[in-house]
Design a protein that fits this description.
The complex is a heterodimer of chains A (544) and B (321).
Chain A (H helix, E strand, L loop, with lengths): L1 H21 L6 E6 L14 H10 L4 E3 L5 E3 L2 E6 L5 E6 L13 H12 L8 H4 L5 H5 L9 E5 L2 E5 L7 H6 L6 H4 L22 E7 L3 E6 L12 E6 L2 H10 L4 E3 L5 H5 L4 E6 L3 E7 L4 H4 L1 H10 L2 H8 L4 E3 L22 H10 L3 E3 L2 E4 L2 E2 L1 E7 L3 H16 L3 E7 L1 H8 L18 E7 L8 H4 L17 H12 L3 H18 L2 E3 L1 E3 L1 E6 L2 E2 L16 E2 L1
Parallel strand pairs in A: 1-10, 18-19, 18-20
Antiparallel strand pairs in A: 2-3, 4-5, 5-7, 6-7, 8-9, 9-10, 11-23, 12-23, 13-20, 13-21, 14-22, 15-16, 16-17, 24-25
Helix pairs in contact in A: 11-13, 17-18
Chain B lengths: L1 H28 L15 H11 L5 H13 L13 H36 L4 H15 L2 H15 L17 H39 L2 H8 L4 H30 L2 H6 L5 H10 L3 H29 L8
The chains are: A alpha+beta (544), B mainly alpha (321).
Chain lengths: 544, 321
């Protein structure tokens, strides 16, 4: 016992000194900018990226990702899998307190997971907990609680799934834990409109102080944060137009802000501003409607891929701040198959491919058997690279005899084509005529199992996001196996195979991956955004 | 006068019902809705449909409109889909900063337009007249986003005289007089944009109505009676010059509330204009509808007020019920 005490005292001392080492100076205020205002700050009600950026400062999940997209402790200190791999038991960090001083226990975790499955919950996260044993029964009102969630003691909770579910840690990293003593008093059906949406109480490194609509969110350091207090005393997050926030950064009114690519020069010429270039997980692609027999022709998809000058998009439209993508995983993702054959930019090969497949050129357009290679291509507005890239792709395809009519629209409008509705406003299946081609971005998550909804026959709308109508079981089976395989090496090889297959079959033609650019005033130290986002090491930021 | 107001009031209510129904229908007929802006791979499409049904988005538009209108009659604008906050609370936060900006620039516009307008009318084709005309045309021709960014670049980034954006120096935490001065300092550039781009019309109106008045017989009579030139300008001509100002005041009433979308966006001003843009992009219809409806009410009230003020300024105007 005595040894134990000494040991824990030593640990406390060690962590205290680690803290001072991490913070050359404690105190002060940093102001960072983002380009859009967050909305609802309940992390379980339809979170957007802008919401999440704030929510992860105020709340914690059980686990959080590492820079190489594995998982590390957050609220959970450790976790163990049962022998059959279907039960995961989380041990929580000791002595964690909510910002209002109440203790955070396993009951809060159980409450959060159960609330998402409530029949009255309407926040978009139910599909994440659906895999837990008994979640569907509870969701349908057939059970009073979820049998797969067991609170063992104040610091221990076990979660059981029906089948082996490999992405369980990814799921848990995406669910921020809410305090039962606050949200338990609000009927779940009212969460969308409750005052807590603009005044959240969490357990994270920063306490929420105020939300000034159209201006800022102010946060103050959680001095009792279980992982060590942040170096800063106060963090202000301002929202504004990208150009305005950049001017504010250059002038020093904000300490960090996203940098639009066309403005890189102004950041490089400011001696007090440091530029960070960060890889992202999202990439752009041309999606196809495989129900259209012309697009179901592999030769047509291959030819399109060879004809598109993706390097020109990166060098010309992104000023080099991006990469060409050759499969459905960007190079920075663990599932990326390193042996993937790059898609060549080769218009001559594209011509030959179409010639060989019997598509004859006449009057600048190719046709075969009375069918002409003419497609509509939908793309979303608001992203200059994508808008100008669409015109470039159109010109590239015209060269090989494929005629494309461009139609721009905002994202919600594009969704009405990809996830169509019937006359009564209810979702229906996609048909050949809903769309031909579309350009869209895809933010691949840390866990690639989400592709199940995009590339299995069952995932076709209205059941999932398989807009393209990819029904080849070869690809789908790899994804099903990937979800049921816990061994990381085996998983990796399954997704590598899937990546290679998608490179060959090209249901989506991958285009490019943009890098994210941030600038920070040199008075703000340790600002180091990475693939996980901008705030990953926020507790170590300090100001002079 | 009273029958006039009553008649215009009834017309206004009918107009308001039509305006609100049409804008409600147009918004909801546009493809896509708020829920679709939330789509991400981790939620199934069924969940989006569930949320749409809970919000009533898939009901027929007349049914949705009646629901919205009956809530409105109870003083409830509903909840923002995007923010999860009551629309009334959002509007309350945003109305103040917009009013501050628009009212300040309006006072400046009226003051400058009257001084320069009357002066140019009294001394047509003088240097001041030419200069002001040039300035006014420059102001009306220059896009406000370009003008705003130019001001930020010159006076904030290069010279460092003014802040680039925002409502106050946030990290400073000023109080009292310091806060007042700090806000005035932050207002300088946006007010400058609104004033210069907004002055053109009113200045030309003041100049033409005053110069027209100066050619009238009663002015010649006054002159022949020996009334001084200054008195003629201030007492007689200015009264005519005020007529366009009154019209402008009436017609500006909605802008006092709705603000300027572009100027507020460029200067990250926490006003109504930006709220409207954000809500339109997010398909957050409860918020856009509330701003639309209040603006429509103010347009109707504003033109009624302008018509009534005419009568006070110009005795020739009569209200014939």
């Amino acid at each position: 016992m005595r040894h134990l005490l000494t040991l824990s005292a030593a640990l406390v001392l060690a962590s205290a000194s680690a803290q001072t080492a991490a913070c050359p100076k404690i105190g002060g205020t940093a102001t960072i900018a983002q380009n859009s205002e967050p909305g609802n700050l309940n992390p379980l009600i339809f979170p957007t990226t802008y919401d999440t950026n704030i929510e992860e400062l105020v709340f914690n999940a059980l686990v959080k990702p590492t820079a190489d997209l594995d998982y590390q402790a957050d609220l959970a200190q450790s976790w163990t899998f049962s022998a059959d791999k279907k039960t995961i038991t989380f041990k929580l960090q000791p002595g964690v307190k909510w910002h209002d001083g109440q203790a955070l226990t396993a009951k809060d975790v159980a409450f959060t997971l159960t609330a998402i499955a409530s029949p009255k919950y309407n926040g978009g996260a139910f599909s994440q907990v659906e895999v837990i044993t008994g979640a569907n029964a509870y969701h349908d009102g057939k059970a009073k609680s979820i049998s797969g969630i067991k609170v063992i003691d104040d610091r221990t909770i076990a979660v059981t799934t029906d089948k082996v579910y490999a992405p369980i840690l990814a799921t848990m990293a995406g669910i921020m834990i809410l305090p039962q003593h606050i949200y338990g008093k609000i009927p779940v059906e009212n969460w969308q409109k409750d005052a807590t949406n603009r005044n959240p109480v969490g357990s994270g490194p920063f306490k929420f102080k105020q939300f000034r609509s159209g201006e800022l969110i102010e946060l103050e350091a959680n001095k009792n944060y279980f992982a060590g207090r942040p170096c800063l005393d106060r963090l202000i997050v301002r929202f504004g137009d990208a150009n305005t926030m950049l001017a504010a950064l250059v002038k020093g009114e904000v300490d960090a802000a996203p940098v639009p690519v066309p403005s890189v020069a102004s950041v490089k010429s400011s001696p007090n501003v440091k530029l960070s270039v960060v890889d992202q997980l999202n990439f752009d692609y041309v999606g196809t409607n495989l129900r259209n027999p012309l697009l179901a022709d592999q030769a047509v998809r291959n030819a399109m891929a060879y004809a598109i000058n993706r390097k020109a998009i990166v060098s010309g439209l992104m000023s080099g701040y991006g990469n060409v993508v050759d499969t459905l995983f960007p190079k920075s993702h663990w599932a990326y198959p390193t042996n993937v054959k790059p898609i060549p930019y080769d218009p001559a090969l594209a011509q030959k491919t179409l010639d060989d497949a019997g598509w004859k050129m006449s009057g600048g357009v190719r046709s075969k058997g009375g069918k002409t290679l003419k497609f509509r291509m939908f793309y979303t507005t608001g992203n200059p690279v994508r808008e100008r890239g669409a015109a470039l792709i159109q010109a590239n395809l015209r060269q090989i005899g494929i005629q494309v009519d461009l139609q721009s629209m905002d994202f919600p409008t594009l969704v009405t084509f990809l996830l169509p509705k019937d006359g009564k406003g209810q979702p229906r299946a996609v048909t050949t005529s809903d769309f031909d081609l579309f350009i869209l971005g895809f933010g691949i998550e840390r866990d690639p199992s989400e592709y199940l909804s995009y590339f299995t026959a069952d995932g076709q709308p209205p059941n999932g996001y398989n807009f393209s109508g990819y029904t080849n079981p070869a690809g789908g089976n790899l994804l099903v196996k990937g979800q049921e395989t816990v061994n990381q090496a085996t998983r990796k090889s399954l997704y590598n195979q899937f990546g290679l297959m998608m490179r060959d079959q090209l249901p989506w033609i991958p285009l490019t991956q943009a890098q994210a650019l941030y600038g920070n005033q040199t008075r703000l130290h340790n600002f180091a955004p990475d693939i996980r986002g901008v705030n990953v090491n926020v507790t170590r930021w300090w100001v002079q | 006068m009273l029958p006039f107001i009553a008649k215009r009031g009834i017309q206004g209510v009918i107009l308001l019902i039509m305006v609100s129904f049409i804008s409600f229908a147009v918004m909801n007929l546009a493809p896509g809705n708020a829920m679709q802006t939330f789509i991400n791979p981790r939620m199934s499409p069924q969940e989006i449909t569930r949320a749409e049904n809970a919000l009533g988005i898939n009901k027929p538009i007349p049914v949705q409109y009646l629901g919205w209108a009956s809530n409105l009659l109870q003083g409830n604008f509903g909840y923002s889909v995007r923010n999860g906050e009551s629309v009334t609370a959002l509007l309350k936060q945003r109305a103040g900063p917009t009013l501050l900006l628009t009212a300040t620039s309006f006072v400046l516009i009226v003051f400058i337009a009257l001084v320069i307008g009357v002066y140019s009318a009294a001394r047509p084709y003088s240097l001041v007249d030419y200069l002001s005309t040039t300035l006014v045309f420059a102001g009306i021709s220059i896009p406000s986003f370009f003008f705003g960014l130019t001001l930020i670049y010159l006076f904030s980034v290069q010279l460092g005289w003014f802040p680039t954006s925002g409502f106050e120096s946030y990290s400073a935490g000023h109080q009292g007089l310091a806060l007042f001065l700090d806000r005035a300092w932050h207002m300088a550039l946006p007010v400058c944009v609104l004033t210069l781009t907004g002055i053109a019309g009113i200045l030309r109106h003041v100049r033409s109505s005053v110069s027209e008045a100066l050619r009238q017989d009663y002015i010649r009579t006054a002159r022949s009676k020996g009334v001084g030139e200054r008195a003629i300008l201030v007492k007689h001509a200015l009264r005519n010059g005020l007529i366009p100002v009154v019209t402008l005041l009436g017609l500006s009433l909605p802008a006092f509330f709705a603000g300027s979308v572009i100027t507020e966006t460029i200067f990250a001003w926490p006003g109504m204009g930006r709220l409207l843009v954000d809500s339109v992009f997010a398909r957050d219809y409860p918020v856009s509808m509330a701003i639309n409806t209040i603006t429509a009410v103010l347009v109707i009230v504003g033109s009624l007020v302008a018509d009534m003020l005419y009568g006070l300024i110009d005795p020739r105007v009569r209200f014939d019920g």
